[in-house]
Structure formats: C-alpha cells, structure tokens
Amino acid sequence: MLTSDHFAAAELARLCAAKGVRYAVISPGSRNAPLVIAFSKRPDIECLQVVDERSAAFFAMGLAQQSYQPIVLICTSGSAVLNYGPAIAEAFYQRIPLLVISADRPEEWVDQGEGQTIRQRNVLAPHMKRSVQLPRHTDELSRWHCGRLINEAIDATLLPVPGPVQVNVPFNEPLYGTAELKAEARLIAPMPVGSFLLPDNGWRAQQLSASLKVMVLVGQGVWSEGMREQLRKLADLPQCAVLTEATSNMDDDSFITCIDRAIEGVNASNENDLKPDILITFGGAIVSKRIKGLLRKWKPAQHWNIDAGERYHDTYQSLTHDIAVEPHIFLAQLEGQVKGNESLYGEAWRMVDARMREVHQRILKATPFCDLTVFETLLERIPQSSDIHLANSTAARYAQLFDRSRSQRFFSNRGTSGIDGCTSTAVGAAFATGKPTTLITGDVAFCYDSNAFWNDNLSPELKVIVIDNGGGNIFRYIEGPDSDPELLPWFESPHHRDIAAMVKSFGLPYYSASDEASLKSALEDLYKPHDTPAVLCITTDARLSATVLRTYFEQLRSA
Known about the structure:
Layout: E1 2-4, H1 7-18, E2 23-26, H2 33-40, E3 46-49, H3 53-67, E4 71-75, H4 85-94, E5 98-104, E6 130-133, H5 140-156, E7 164-170, E8 178-180, H6 203-210, E9 214-218, H7 225-235, E10 240-243, H8 259-262, H9 271-274, E11 278-282, H10 289-298, E12 302-306, E13 321-323, H11 327-334, H12 345-365, H13 371-381, E14 387-390, H14 394-398, E15 409-412, H15 422-433, E16 437-442, H16 443-448, E17 462-468, H17 474-477, H18 488-492, H19 499-505, E18 510-513, H20 516-526, E19 534-539, H21 542-558
Parallel strand pairs: 2-3, 2-4, 4-5, 5-7, 6-7, 9-10, 9-11, 11-12, 12-13, 14-15, 14-16, 16-17, 17-19, 18-19
Antiparallel strand pairs: 1-8
Helix pairs in contact: 1-2, 1-5, 3-4, 3-15, 7-11, 13-20
C-alpha cells in the first residue's frame, strides 16, 4: 500500500486501522504532512477535516462519546496541540477515548528560535492517561521501539478505563514523500480481564439488609436496561432510595429523578429521616451542587464508591470503601442477596419528591415567560428518542428540575463543566449517530464556540436551541456577583453579537421566539426536515429569569 515514507507515520496509520480505529479528525498544517498522507491513504479510516483545533478536539470527543471507540486527532507542530487542551481535560474526566497524534519538529530545535517549535513532549500530560514520543531514527531497534509504543498508546485509550492518550511524532524534512512500505511492527493484542467481586464478600449484602437508610446516587453515564432493572430491584426495598439526574440517563418511576427539586423539601423536621447511613455512588460527575453540599454536611457513616478505574474518589468527604469493580458487576452480585426490612426510608424520599413535584407544577402555572418556562416547553416538545446535549452552565442546571422521557438520552460536558466546546461536541455526536440531536445552549456558550459550524461534517439531524438572556445569566442567580451592580458585567459578560447574522453567515436556517406562542410555532419549524443543522434563538428577560428562579426555590422550600 502506498503511504508516507516516514516509518512512524505509516505504522501509526496501519496499527490504528488494525485495532479498529475508524475516524481521524485532521486540522491542516505542514509538519503533519506525513500523518495526513498515511491516514488519508487508508481506505478503512475516514478522515474528517476541521480547521479550528479547539473545535476539532471537541468534535472528535462527540464522535468518541457516541461510538465508544478511540478517535484519532492529528495536528501540526507548535501551538496547534495546545488548542486541544480544553477537550482533552474534558475527555480525561469523562473517560472518552481520544488518540492525539501531534506532529513535531526534531527535539534538537526546541528553544533554538525555530518556528512552530515549542516544548511539545508531554505538553498535555496532566490530563493524559499516557504520553509517548516516537523515535525519530529508523534503525532496527528504533523501529521495534516505535511499534511497541504505538501499540501501547492505542490500547491505553480504552484500557483499563477509556481516556485520552498523546503520541508526539518528530519529523525531519522532506515531509511529502510516499513509498510502498510493508508492515514491520507487530500487532500486539490486549487481553482485558474483567474485574469481579470475590464470592466471600457477602458482608455487603448483609450490611445493606441490616441498614435502615441506604442512598444510591447515580452520576453521569449511559447505562444498560439491565442495570436499570438491577437498580429498580434495590429501589423496591423499603430501606433504599435511588437518586439520579438528567445526565445519569437512569430514569424510572421508582427513582428520585429531579434531585435539585426534591431536596428543597429537606428541612429540620425531616432531615434525620432522609440522610443516609450508607451512600453508594457510581458514574461520572453530579451536576447538583445542592446534593453535594448536603451529603458533605450529613457525612454518611459509610460511603461506597463503585468504579473500576477511579481510586479514592471522595467527593462527599465520607469515603469508607473504594470498590474497584464495574457497577453492573457490583449490582449483579447484590441481586437477590439484599433483604428488605422495616425501614420507611424509601417512602420518606418518595413523599418529599411527590410534594415538591406538586408545588413545582403549581408554580409553573403562575410563572410568566422566562428561562424556567422555556425549559418546561422544550422538554415537553423535543421529539421522543432524541439525544439532548446540555451546554454549561444554566442549561445543564435547568434540565434537572423537570421530569423526563425515558426515550431521550442526555449528554453534557460535565467533566470540567466548561462552555468552550459544547456546540462542537454536539456536532460530533450528531455526525456519529445520525440520530435526531438537540443542543440546548446559552447565548455566551453559543458565541464562544461558533467555530463549531466551520466544519463540512454537519448533520442535518442537529437542532440547536439558543436561550439568549443577554449574557451569563447564572451570575444573576449565584449569591455574590448579583449583589454588586458594578462588578456584575464582568461576570455576566453581556455581549452585542448578532446571533441571527452569525447563524446566517454559516448558511443555516434561523428561527426566533420571544414568547410562549412564538416558541411553540418556532419549534414546529425547527423540527421540520432540513438539509443542514437549524438554529432557534429564544430571547428571554435576564432579570426576570433570575428573579423567577430564586422565587421558585423559595416557594419549594416554604412548602
């Protein structure tokens, strides 16, 4: 096969293809020419060009998030690789497999005034599972070394848990040569061994059978229907309460699925009945600051964190057991072993949840058009079986207040909770799945990542809903920034961008709404078939929205 005449580039492409990599996201450059040649000539790898490296990395993350396979990122030398930083940190904490292949100049030129030459080796290491530099020489020993490092790097994106890996590749000129190169590096196949619990660990079931108050808190993730059934059996036990969020993708009538809404019903009279003795956690990030604060205050007597890869994840400052096993295996070994007792713990949580749902519905009936009522309408009218991406930061929070359809999946960049790549991630995810995908974002996050649409790989199934409240409205709600009118603009970051003009500059259909009637009409237009992504911009009053949200929580508490 004709490929690059640089051995490292040719073997990277060959071994990636052999290990099942199917996409390479490439940003233009010169020093990465050997990589571009090698990957573009592989018929089994689809190469996608995205010019902006920051957007490219989030786009690749969206692809990997949906395909559960490593996605290759290729960039040129110099500052290009630094633009991957935000997405790499997000992928690291979300455990999304990315293989960053950064072209470099020979290391001898570092700090010698050579253009596009920086200290690239290990430049993103703090948020990489592994960073390797391939040898530049091509003697027999170097070729063997190169092949081994490539095998290790590709496999490390998935095992023992997924995450990003960097391969830095220095190239000498000339860069554009091709050759017929035969395979030289061996394909080394990993043999993963699943983690398991030993059969003599029955003490867990015994403790859960004896405890009167067991809380299971599910973090971000996409889980199987089998796991839902396992959790449902736990939730049916009188001593158990299962709490989930939108991004947990684990909704069920027997679970508490709107944490931020429900815990406003916790007060001095019922607190002792609702705080757990045993807390069991698994999954990624929890959005709710309220539940984190409450659990840190309560300090359960035992906290079991279930995670095959994360060690000593002590979010609630109460960790007693770090159980390094996959959650489904942990739950499977509990199945049928935990016995119900005389507790009323699960019922106590369900009563509070039902009361807060009733108050929530009553509040909404009397609430004028604002961010809160916009989310009510959106979550009622986004089509079933859609994927919904929630941008940071208000979108991810508002969605936690509403009951959800089990046919929808929710995603959000909650690894680092930044606004920088929310749109690009949704663009990549929609391309990967071909499914109806809706991004709900704010005006600042949308403007910040507008280069997401500078991309030839846009799915017509993507719908973008921008809630334009004139800036970072979260800071009108957070205590502190809202109390100083002179400082508020520095936090709220009001902008004067013309969102309609921006959307139209990318040739995308644009719709707008500013009240309930126009919103319902615009949503019908948005979800009609289009040849490209379509954008709906909803204008709300920033001051009113912040006031309504404060009052909403006050009314829940007073109930």
